[in-house]
Amino acid sequence: MDSWENQVVQVLAEVTVGAESVEVAAGIAESIDIHVDHSKDRVEVKTILPDTRDLGRVAIEVNYAVTIPRDAGLVCENTLGDTVVRNVGGDLSAKTRFGIVDIREVGGIAHVWARGEFPLQAHRLRQGGVFVLSGTQAEFGEVGGKLQVSNYRGAVTIRDLLPEVELDVTSENGPIHLYLADGASPDLEASVLLGTIVSDVPLRRATLSAFTLARDGRPEATQRAMLHATFSEVVIHREGLKADEEATGPAETELVKRTVTADAPVGEGGEVVVDAVIGDVRVEGVDEDVLTVSASQLVRLRSNASTADAQSALDALELKIEEAGGRLRVRTSARDDLTAFGCAGYRVDLDIRCPRTSPLKLQVQNGHTSVESTGGSVTIEPGCRQRARRARQRAAGHHESQGGRGSCRLRGPGRSGCGLRHRHHSESVRPRNRKL
User: What is the pLDDT of residue 239?
Assistant: First the structure.
């Protein structure tokens, strides 16, 4: 996406289709509609794909190069592929999945939703914006206005703050790095739950159990930053410091990880129950009669903990598969008081493969819960609420969830393809007003 001074929207589309024969690929390519619709104040461009379910293996790729008027706003949705945006004078709204995001020079407010373990670059956001991210490696630079960032299992780096900026950044299971220019004195607040704060700037600190709050209060400052991380770290860098001047010191805690596995046969129609301590739970239905479980055990140890303490803390996190009354129960637990081993926090992430038709009951604590490709009933309590309700119609079987903390996703089986074929489409539209 780019802009120009002309009051015209130009659309260039390259279509690539692969199929099991050249003839089938050519037919599909001709059936793909690059639809452009425009009204008084809006131009809409979208891809309309044909039904290819009975045509064997098919892969389709559509790449766009869109140029819009300099002062227009932009709404973009990309479900698979890279998104590059340049020189948008108005507001930007972008929703992307599984692709690189590169945004430079936005005059309005940016609203961005991005998912997938891909880099996101956002620079020269004059009025800030709202970024909701999952698994994303995000970097921001030359940001002004109010910027809100929420990232899950990714990383956030922020550099080159503009003179007037307000940051509100939250990261779960991923670090936050803030780089301050030499001489900058922003109003700073950093907090972590089961994590660490490392700073080149002197901060006043207070700790209550596993929660730490650190501040350098400057109410008169025009640069403000609130940074919060869970089970990770907040690092505040002062650019221009020599190595011997850095005030970071040794890390306050250290993360130790171990993976253990277990499996058990499942009888026909046998129920699978998951009783999990804090951590993520991913369940995938497969065409097998065996339940397999992989558990990633993570403990965060204080800096004075020994190697023996680390081993004892990991050994205290148990994974069991128990059979009773025709059902299998996957149970994770903390057997001992882990604080005795210098443990500041722990979690157990589960990756479970179970028979596709087995009924599921998940009893989970804080964390992300994902259920994919299952055909039996699914009951989740108490870690999922809104996302589970929205997803009930997307997978087979009955699904039920009860309120709590965390997030949940239910998803049915998907499709894949491959191939080769090209077609180009271009169109220009002159809008009366300036929105795309």
Answer: 81
What are residue 406's DSSP bridge partners? none
Structure tokens that stand for 282 in this block: 């991913």
Give phi and psi for 172, each to the nearest 5. -105, 120
Per-residue pLDDT tens over the stretch 204-238: 999 887 889 999 999 999 999 999 999 889 999 98
Say what the pLDDT of residue 408 is: 55
User: Contact 256/198 with Cβ under 8 angstroms?
Assistant: no
Determine phi and psi for 34, rounding to 5 degrees. -90, 95
* The two structure tokens encoding residue 338: 């882990």
pLDDT of 300: 79
3-state secondary structure (DSSP) of residue 30: helix
Q: Where are the beta strands (DSSP E) in 107-199?
A: 110-115, 119-125, 128-134, 137-143, 145-152, 155-159, 165-172, 176-180, 187-193, 196-199
Q: State the pLDDT at residue 403.
A: 44
In whole angstroms, what is the distance from residue 137 CA to residue 100 CA? 10
Asked if pLDDT for residue 424 goes beyond 50, the answer is no
Name the residue type at position 231. F
Q: CA geometry: angle at 323 spanning 320 and 326, to 5°?
A: 150
Give the pair of three-digit tokens for residue 432.
């009366």
Dihedral (C-alpha) 83, 84, 86, 90: value to the nearest 10 degrees? 10
CA distance to 6, 12, 278, 342, 426, per residue, from 49 (Å): 30, 17, 42, 57, 17
Per-residue b or e along 381-420, where b marks 16 or more CB atoms closer than 10 Å to that residue's CB: eebbbebbeebeeebbbebebeebebbbbbebeeeebebe
Residue 379 phi/psi, 5-degree rounding, is -125, 130
DSSP 8-class letter at 131: E
Give the CA count within 13 Å in the CB-facing half-sphere of 159.
8
Across the chain, mean pLDDT equals 83
CB of 80 closer than 8 Å to CB of 97 = yes
Of 348, 189, 333, 332, which is closest to residue 274 (Cα–Cα)? 332
257: three-class secondary structure by DSSP: strand
Q: How confident is the model at residue 366 (pLDDT cuts 50, 70, 90)?
A: low
CA distance 205 to 196: 11
